[in-house]
């Protein structure tokens, strides 16, 4: 029943890869290439159904189009999903089969790491086929410090907009999740005098922040209700919901986690509550900026990537001002900016 499938009319291309012998079921979704080649990571995840995997690939690739456009990159949006459990099913044979699929796509899709696909896996794919970014050998490697720097600068941009000063000294920040990005962010914040409240499901990570960064550790949802100025979600998605938004004490939400809004309505809930929300795909675009740097001649330069991240606070400042002037959510304004850039490029192309 075709009606059971998600709507893919907005997508340029969708590729299905299947190799029964080697256990591969993969979907590569190319959403839009108006601004450049489609780039986005490969997610390895045991989706319960093909429809769920397709929905994920469509949603994530659309998100990559918006992310690249708002970041001002000459890239389009794409994303791949391998339907497999990364812990048990991700065999060398499966990756080999996926590498062959990527090679057959011949550069129409450029991949990178994502949930379930490690840097080592990216290296393996790169040893078989080009159009793999974020590798450690000759590539940009771990994107997390660049993402953290972008979030750090984004928090300052939010403070500047909300308070007229980006000084972090004495500002209270709650960091949810002290993984690769959250820990790096927490160190940067502490370095400029912020007072930290932290949480992590791994108590060792929270304890490390208590010991080394003078943080206060809390458990579970106490991070949402913490009495702070800024809430930085750096763990899971859907943390901002009908249930959690009324409990927030922070006036600013600015963190690295993907898909922070549980539903599209939550952006309006935040606005109504007077909470300044830094759209997740804008503030966390440092990782994408980092891999995009690989594609810029003469090749990857870590310092150049760090410098390019300085575009994030400028973009966020423009989004905050426009949202305030137009009485719209920051999320709606970010999407509008992306669509305006894509539309302008489309017009330029059609006139060329
Ligand atoms: P990570 O896996 O290294 O860290 C996540 C941390 O969150 C871990 O320490 C984990 O224990 C903790 N955690 C998980 N569930 C939790 C919960 N319920 N409460 C508290 N802590 C919890 O991941 P990361 O690379 O640091 O990424 C963090 C977030 O940022 C993710 O949503 C990711 O998609 C997003 N992101 C990361 C990058 C990047 O460059 N790494 C780029 C863009 C977006």
Automatic annotation (TrEMBL):
Gene3D superfamilies per UniProt: Leucine Dehydrogenase, chain A, domain 1, NAD(P)-binding Rossmann-like Domain
GO MF entries: nucleotide binding; oxidoreductase activity, acting on the CH-NH2 group of donors, NAD or NADP as acceptor
Residue ranges constituting the S-adenosyl-L-homocysteine hydrolase NAD binding domain according to the UniProt record: 146-296
UniProt-listed SUPFAM superfamilies: Aminoacid dehydrogenase-like, N-terminal domain, NAD(P)-binding Rossmann-fold domains
Binding site for NAD(+): 177-182
GO terms of biological process kind: amino acid metabolic process
Keywords on record: NAD, Nucleotide-binding, Oxidoreductase
Domain Glutamate/phenylalanine/leucine/valine/L-tryptophan dehydrogenase C-terminal: 141-350
Superkingdom, taxonomy of origin: Bacteria
UniProt xrefs under InterPro entries: Ado_hCys_hydrolase_NAD-bd (IPR015878), Aminoacid_DH-like_N_sf (IPR046346), Glu/Leu/Phe/Val/Trp_DH (IPR006095), Glu/Leu/Phe/Val/Trp_DH_C (IPR006096), Glu/Leu/Phe/Val/Trp_DH_dimer (IPR006097), Glu/Leu/Phe/Val_DH_AS (IPR033524), Glu/Phe/Leu/Val/Trp_DH_bac/arc (IPR016211), NAD(P)-bd_dom_sf (IPR036291)
Listed Pfam families: ELFV_dehydrog, ELFV_dehydrog_N
Catalytic residues (positions): 79 (proton donor/acceptor)
Similarity-based family: Belongs to the Glu/Leu/Phe/Val dehydrogenases family.
Protein name: Glu/Leu/Phe/Val dehydrogenase
Species, as recorded: Nitratireductor mangrovi
């Amino acid at each position: 029943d075709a009606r059971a499938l998600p709507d893919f009319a907005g997508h340029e291309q969708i590729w299905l890869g299947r190799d029964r012998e080697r256990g591969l079921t993969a979907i590569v979704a190319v959403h839009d290439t108006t601004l450049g080649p489609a780039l986005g990571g490969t997610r390895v995840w045991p989706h319960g159904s093909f429809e769920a995997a397709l929905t994920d690939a469509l949603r994530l690739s659309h998100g990559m189009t918006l992310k690249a456009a708002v970041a001002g990159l000459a890239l389009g949006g794409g994303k791949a999903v391998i339907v497999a459990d990364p812990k048990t099913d991700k065999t060398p044979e499966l990756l080999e089969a996926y590498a062959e699929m990527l090679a057959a796509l011949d550069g129409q899709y450029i991949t990178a790491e994502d949930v379930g696909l490690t840097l080592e896996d990216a290296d393996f794919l790169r040893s078989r086929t080009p159009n793999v970014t974020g590798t450690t050998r000759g590539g940009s490697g771990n994107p997390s410090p660049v993402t953290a720097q972008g979030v750090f600068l984004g928090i300052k941009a939010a403070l500047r907009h909300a308070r007229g000063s980006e000084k972090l000294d004495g500002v209270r920040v709650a960091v949810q999740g002290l993984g690769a990005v959250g820990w790096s962010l927490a160190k940067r914040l502490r370095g400029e005098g912020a007072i930290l409240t932290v949480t992590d499901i791994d108590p060792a990570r929270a304890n490390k922040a208590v010991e080394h960064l003078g943080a206060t550790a809390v458990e579970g949802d106490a991070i949402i209700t913490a009495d702070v100025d800024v809430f930085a979600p750096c763990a899971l998605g859907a943390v901002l919901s009908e249930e959690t938004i009324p409990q927030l004490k922070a006036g600013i939400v600015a963190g690295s986690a993907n898909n922070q809004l549980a539903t599209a309505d939550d952006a309006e809930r935040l606005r109504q509550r007077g909470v300044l929300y830094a759209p997740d795909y804008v503030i966390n675009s440092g990782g994408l900026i980092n891999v995009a740097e690989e594609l810029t001649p003469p090749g990857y330069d870590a310092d150049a990537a760090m410098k390019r991240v300085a575009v994030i606070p400028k973009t966020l400042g423009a989004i905050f001002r426009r949202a305030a002037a137009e009485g719209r959510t920051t999320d709606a304004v970010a999407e509008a900016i992306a669509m305006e850039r894509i539309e302008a490029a489309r017009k330029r192309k059609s006139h060329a």
